[in-house]
Design brief:
2 domains; single chain; 13 strands; alpha/beta; TIM Barrel; Glutaredoxin; four-stranded mixed sheet; 12 helices; seven-stranded parallel sheet
């Protein structure tokens, strides 16, 4: 059954911190809080649009839901809980900060039917967290995840590769820490320089260098491949495209692209093909047919955005005659047929831990 999310945005309401990257109004398109009646109206409006059978969840976004008082949390959750009890929706989820999780808070959330909590972790490097003015430490993350899991709720974590003071070693250590935490899912949001933020000032001053699109894609691919080895689903890479984020006056720098997630997946497929080429073609010109068998659902990823994978593969490895066949049996796998030999390549072959 397909999922349908009813989003309710609580932009920066209740949060006492001002992270260097944060401009919630630009990200969510809102700068005022919602009330209980508005939550009920949002739910009813979305329910009225659904014509097919779906797994429906109400999601409170904004990153600091549990920074609100218990009373306000309860008020906002009531309309969703009423819809849940009436079986109009199937679940309630929210996103919040690691340092705004306690046993009391989670127990209250459970009373109103919340089943999933996402934590804006961003990094597990205290140096990076401090440079980003996050206001919490790595230990806060581990404590929050422990509480959520002990209560039997689903726990998701959000990461922001490319924050100030982060490098490859820091990112790897963060990834290793995430594996130890064993969340139910991950979202990857590479750091963007949003207008009217402290990070924008740092960028203009030259004290912060934003990730390029290429590096952001590489980071995303690394994390997806690594987490896949430990069966931790990455359910999103890159911010959801909006008209606001598409404006050059809003996103000043960083790896933003409306098709960022597709570009990450395509890059992984290119690495799979390059793995074959480095082992077999040895950079020699090849006029023999190279037949790439793949699952029909992976066609766009094998080709790459605007056929970029095929163009790069041909030019890098002097491959003159490539044929794509949509007859593969397994998603995320290619079988390369070359000189009467079949080479099976999948994600697991690309990463060794």
């Amino acid at each position: 059954m397909k999922h349908f999310i009813i989003p309710v945005f609580i932009p920066h309401f209740g949060c006492i911190h001002s992270c260097v990257f944060c401009n919630q109004q630009k990200i969510t398109g809102r700068n005022t809080p919602v009330n209980s009646q508005e939550v009920a109206d949002i739910i009813d409006e979305h329910l009225g649009r659904i014509t097919e059978k779906r797994h429906i969840e109400v999601a409170f976004y904004g990153g600091s839901f549990t920074a609100l008082t218990i009373e306000i949390q309860s008020e906002l959750l009531k309309p969703a809980y009423i819809a849940l009890k009436a079986k109009k929706i199937h679940g309630i989820r929210l996103s919040t900060r690691p340092d705004c999780i306690t046993n009391e808070i989670v127990q209250n959330l459970m009373q109103y039917g919340v089943s999933t909590i996402e934590l804006g972790v961003q990094s597990l490097d205290n140096k990076v967290l401090e440079a980003s003015a996050r206001g919490h430490s790595c230990s806060d993350v581990f404590e929050a995840v422990t509480i959520i899991k002990n209560m039997g709720l689903f726990c998701g974590l959000q990461l922001m590769p490319g924050l100030p003071q982060e490098d490859w070693k820091s990112l790897i250590r963060t990834a290793q820490g995430i594996i130890k935490l064993a969340p139910d899912f991950i979202r990857i949001y590479p750091t963007l320089v949003i207008a009217h933020t402290r990070l924008a000032d740092m960028y203009h001053e030259g004290s912060y260098k934003a990730l390029s699109l290429t590096t952001g894609i590489t980071y995303g691919a690394f994390l997806k491949l690594l987490f896949d080895q430990y069966k931790i689903p990455v359910i999103r890479t890159g911010l959801q495209a909006t008209e606001e984020l598409d404006k050059s006056s809003v996103v000043l720098a960083g790896p933003y692209h409306p098709a960022f997630g597709e570009m990450v997946d395509s890059y992984i497929f290119y690495v799979m093909l390059a793995h074959f080429a480095e082992l077999v073609l040895l950079l020699k010109e090849s006029t023999d047919e190279i037949i790439i068998h793949h699952h029909p659902r992976d066609t766009s990823k094998v080709r790459g955005v605007s056929n970029s994978n095929m163009k790069k593969f041909k030019s890098t490895y002097n491959a003159k005659n490539i044929i794509l066949k949509q007859d593969g049996l397994h998603i995320n796998e290619v079988i390369v047929e070359y000189q009467d030999i079949y080479y099976v390549i999948n994600k697991k072959m690309l990463f060794y831990i």
